[in-house]
Design goal:
Elements lengths: L2 E2 L1 E3 L2 E3 L3 E7 L2 E11 L2 H19 L3 H17 L1 H12 L3 H23 L4 E4 L5 E9 L2 E5 L7 H12 L3 E5 L5 H13 L7 E3 L4 H10 L5 E5 L2 H13 L3 E5 L4 E5 L5 H13 L9 E7 H17 L18 H16 L3 E4 L16 E4 L6 H4 L6 E7 L2 H9 L6 E5 L3 H10 L4 E4 L19 E2 L9 H4 E9 L1
Helix pairs in contact: 1-7, 2-4, 2-6, 3-4, 3-6, 4-5, 9-10
The structure holds NADP nicotinamide-adenine-dinucleotide phosphate.
InterPro entries: Ald_DH/histidinol_DH (IPR016161), Ald_DH_C (IPR016163), Ald_DH_CS_CYS (IPR016160), Ald_DH_CS_GLU (IPR029510), Ald_DH_N (IPR016162), Aldehyde_DH_dom (IPR015590)
Pfam families: Aldedh
Family: Belongs to the aldehyde dehydrogenase family.
Length: 478
């Protein structure tokens, strides 16, 4: 089997070792062997990016537009094929995989447009005879470190703005999903990104990622992943005063009020908590439900879950694919045991399932009787596991929703304008959803959270410029 190499300084290079890419729906299916860079190759990639930066920073906007637009067009044209690869390596269903690839293509198109819309301000000075200009310039070499759960969309929403604003990139994808990352690197290479401007270094986080975070020639790090890794990266970046952007975990609440439309509530709950196997940072994992609708809501969710098909991600009709790997599955099962030991009641699922192929199949799990202090109510599980907390009224629901160290996405289902408006204002989260699932966002508006979920400027849309550029103020005396 051929080895898919890394892209360093415009050259496709094999590494010291290889990493097999295994299909979580079928553990006997090895998708490919992917090069594993070592620390020396990570240093080479950073040196190549540093060398390419002066020319790329001053490159013409037509060149940058053309490259990003071409990459976006190819991604969109190949969305079925790339979606199948993504679903095969990550385990989300084929429609979800195709949808994610299409999203990546749209993101490249959006940032191609942003290249042409680069602007600044020209202002009068408070001092006579002087003009002031405020402009944005690229930051330098950006290290991009991404998680496994969105193998192409998250890389796209970091790589596209980084390149659009004139930065060079060293990209380290998660080890579990090198296939989509390699396909994206191949597309960018063929779209005409100059040598060294974009580098792919597949390899271990503790080796390649660590070099990127510590290296003084990496001016900024954009990281998406777990809180523990994010904290360690922030501490190292702070030591050398590197710019840092972290998107981390969530424990997102969905508040359901007595006046909710039950079918909307059930739909938001099931989509938000269980689709993509619950492996989304924006997944709802806490349903906070007022007493008057509690029993009907639980019954409705159980009925919907019973009708969902958990199976091979690539099979037609599958609603929920497998858990991504054995260690995530262990974590999900461990939390299901923790929930039981905390005296929450497991009223649906949480069982290992046998299917035609050997895969990590888990039935969606629903707990009731959870309370705010339980670990299943406080810690991110990152699987198809959610719990219901019964509350007396809206005021208690809001307080419980905000009682978390995280603050990514927060939802409410209600027909009351008063409660919707109040929740919108008082939910302590970066994104608020009214009568919509906590997961599911647009690409042209900011994405990110508060509290322990995020650090630094927002990602996506025009707000991406905050991280990927640095502002210069120029005074010109006439
Ligand atoms: P993770 O274990 O923290 O890994 C994320 C990335 O960091 C991977 O590429 C990993 O490489 C790398 N890494 C690991 N150790 C490192 C180190 N010492 N230095 C530098 N890089 C290092 O997270 P994950 O399990 O892949 O992803 C799941 C988490 O991501 C969840 O907590 C989820 O909530 C979060 N997430 C957040 C968002 C958001 O926008 N807020 C979106 C999606 C996911 P290896 O693969 O080689 O370990």
């Amino acid at each position: 089997m051929n080895v898919f190499p890394n892209l360093i300084g415009g050259q496709w290079l094999e590494g010291g070792s290889v990493n097999p890419n295994i299909n979580p729906s079928n553990l006997d299916d090895v998708i490919g062997q992917y090069a594993q860079a070592d620390a020396a190759q990570a240093h080479s990639a950073i040196a190549a990016a540093r060398a390419a930066f002066p020319a790329w920073a001053l490159s013409g906007i037509q060149q940058r537009f053309d490259i990003l637009d071409k990459a976006g067009s190819e991604i969109l044209a190949r969305k079925e094929e790339l979606g199948a690869l993504l679903s095969r390596e990550e385990g989300k269903t084929l429609p979800e995989g195709i949808g994610e690839v299409a999203r990546a293509g749209q993101i490249f198109k959006f940032f191609a447009g942003e290249v042409l819309r680069l602007s600044g301000d020209k202002l009068p000075s408070v001092r006579p005879g002087i003009d002031v200009e405020v402009t944005r310039e690229p930051v330098g070499v950006i290290g991009l470190i991404t998680p496994w759960n969105f193998p192409i969309a998250i890389p796209a929403w970091k790589i596209a703005p980084a390149l659009a604003y004139g930065n060079c990139v060293v990209f380290k994808p998660a080890e579990l999903v090198p296939g989509s990352a390699w396909a994206l690197a191949d597309i960018l290479h063929r779209a005409g990104v100059p040598a060294g401007v974009f580098n792919l270094v597949m390899g271990r986080g503790s080796v390649v990622g660590d070099v990127m975070v510590r290296h003084r020639d990496v001016s900024a790090i954009s990281f998406t992943g777990s809180v523990g890794t994010g904290r360690a990266i922030a501490a190292l970046a702070a030591e050398r005063l590197a710019k840092v952007q972290l998107e981390m975990g969530g424990k997102n609440p969905l508040v359901v009020l007595d006046d909710a439309d039950l079918s909307v509530a059930v739909n938001c709950a099931v989509q938000g908590a269980y689709f993509s196997t619950g492996q989304r940072c924006t997944a709802s994992s806490r349903f906070i439900v007022t007493s008057g609708i509690h029993d009907r809501f639980v019954q409705g969710v159980k009925e919907r879950l019973a009708a969902l098909k958990v199976d091979d991600a690539l099979l037609e009709g599958t609603d929920i694919g497998p858990v991504v790997d054995a260690s995530q599955l262990d974590q999900d099962l461990r939390y299901i045991e923790i929930g039981k030991s905390e005296d929450a009641e497991l009223v649906f699922g949480g069982e290992l399932l046998q299917r035609r192929t050997r895969g990590h199949f888990l039935s969606p799990a629903l707990f009731t009787g959870a309370t705010a202090g339980m670990r299943i109510s406080r810690e991110e599980i990152f699987g198809p596991v959610a719990s219901v907390q019964r509350v007396a009224d809206y005021e208690e629901a809001l307080a419980v929703a905000n009682d978390t160290e995280f603050g990514l996405s927060s939802g409410v289902v209600t027909t009351s304008l008063k409660h919707a408006s109040h929740f919108k204002r008082h939910a302590q989260a970066g994104m608020v959803m009214v009568n919509a699932p906590t997961a599911g966002v647009d690409y042209h508006v900011p994405f990110g959270g508060r509290k322990g979920s995020s650090l630094g400027p927002r990602e996506q849309g025009r707000y991406a410029a905050e991280f990927y550029t640095t502002v210069k103020t120029t005074y010109i005396a006439a």
